[in-house]
Amino acid sequence: MTVSSRYQPTEGITVEELDDGLCLFRETDSELLVLNHTAADVWRLADSTSDIGQLLAELADKYGAEPDELAADVERVLAELTSKGYLRPVHD
Amino acid sequence: MTESGAEPRELVDLLGVRLAVPAGFTRLRPAFADLFAGDGVPAGTGASLELRPDDTAEDALALLTEAVVRRSPLLCIHAAVVASDHGVLAVPGQSGLGKSTLAAALTRAGLRYLSDEALALDRQSGAVTRFPRPLSLAPDVWPLLGIDAMPESGEFERQFAPSTFGPVFSGGPIAVTDILLAERSGTSTELSEGSRSDAVTALLTRSFNHFLDPAGSLRTAATVVRSARVWRARYSDATDLAERMALALSLG
């Protein structure tokens, strides 16, 4: 799995926050994706943090874990959101 | 219909659609009477309902629903819809869920009927406009709903006026306060708290016309769900679920 250091939401994604998750709607093919709490945190931090290291640090702080413990799961979520076209890697 | 095509027609406004229906349509009253009361919503896209002399009430109802929900400026979602003292309870679901039976049972349990077919939401405010269709019910559920009648030979369904079962909501636009995600399974009724994410998914996947504004439809659905309580139910007896739901709503 190739993981970029930074990600951004793809254009044309509508986001609606709910108290138990996040709804992402992709206009190009009208696909709706619902993220649970954890995946929603990954999405939000991918949009707001400067790189994956910072993203892991903030998630680790929130969930009381070590960044290394979360890395595999976070990379899997990022890869899935990227493959589905909701996130795109940013190359400096 | 006459050969000249100049048969008498009647204009009705339903869900923002100005619909011209053959005057003969009214012979299907009283089952359709509630639909002709008008909702006072601005007339939207025009449509003309074509009926043949041999069309049955079921045919007429299917054509009317098709004509209205696909043209309406409102976001129309396949659902049973009733009102409590607090606001609207919507039960989104596909055909075969038993929405009509559930709508009738909820109305018998003291809630007010808005529709057995469409939750019609203003795309900006999320307020609900009623669509009080007649209820098409198979003979096997008639006894459950207190209908003392015998089916005719080969009768598959019969149309019943909503007022057969209880009060029909007659007010203007009203807010959604509760959403019930119901599933027929098991032998008893289980009612619990549901997930807002599941509710948004249920509303959008049951929509008739979200494609008119897909992203806006998500915003409308999310707006409605955020301010509503979400319930989940497994049930086998619609009247039992309706009574449990009506009690839960009465407790606030």
- Helical fraction of chain B equals 10-25%
Q: Order of strands across the widest beta sheet of chain A?
A: 2-3-4
N-to-C order of helices and strands of chain B: EEEHEEHEEEEEEEHHEH
**If you compute it from the alpha carbons, what radius of gyration of chain A comes out, rounded to the nearest whole angstrom?**
13 Å
Uncertain stretches of chain A? none
Please give the radius of gyration of chain B in angstroms.
Answer: 18 Å
Cα shape of chain B:
globular
Please state roughly what percent of the residues of chain A sit in beta strands, choosing from under 5%, 5-15%, 15-25%, 25-35%, 35-45% or over 45%: 25-35%
Mean pLDDT of chain A: 88
Spatial gap, N to C terminus of chain A: 19 Å
Helix and strand layout, with pairings?
The complex is a heterodimer of chains A (92) and B (252).
Chain A: E1 7-9, E2 13-18, E3 21-26, E4 31-35, H1 37-48, H2 52-63, H3 67-83, E5 87-89
Antiparallel strand pairs in A: 1-5, 2-3, 3-4
Helix pairs in contact in A: 1-2, 1-3, 2-3
Chain B: E1 9-14, E2 17-22, E3 46-48, H1 57-69, E4 75-83, E5 88-92, H2 99-108, E6 112-115, E7 118-121, E8 128-129, E9 135-137, E10 158-160, E11 176-184, E12 190-193, H3 196-205, H4 214-226, E13 229-235, H5 238-250
Describe the overall structure.
The complex is a heterodimer of chains A (92) and B (252). Chain A contains three helices and five strands; from the N terminus they run E-E-E-E-H-H-H-E. By secondary structure, chain A is of the alpha+beta class. In chain A, helix 1 (37-48) crosses helix 3. Chain B has helices spanning 57-69, 99-108, 196-205, 214-226, 238-250, and strands spanning 9-14, 17-22, 46-48, 75-83, 88-92, 112-115, 118-121, 128-129, 135-137, 158-160, 176-184, 190-193, 229-235. In chain B, strands 4, 5, 6, 7, 8, 11, 12 and 13 form an eight-stranded mixed sheet that branches. Chain B is α+β, with helices and mostly antiparallel strands and 252 residues long. The A-B interface holds A 14, 16-21, 23, 25, 27, 30, 32, 34, 36 and B 195-198, 200-201, 204-205, 210-211, 214-215, 218-219, 222, 225-226.
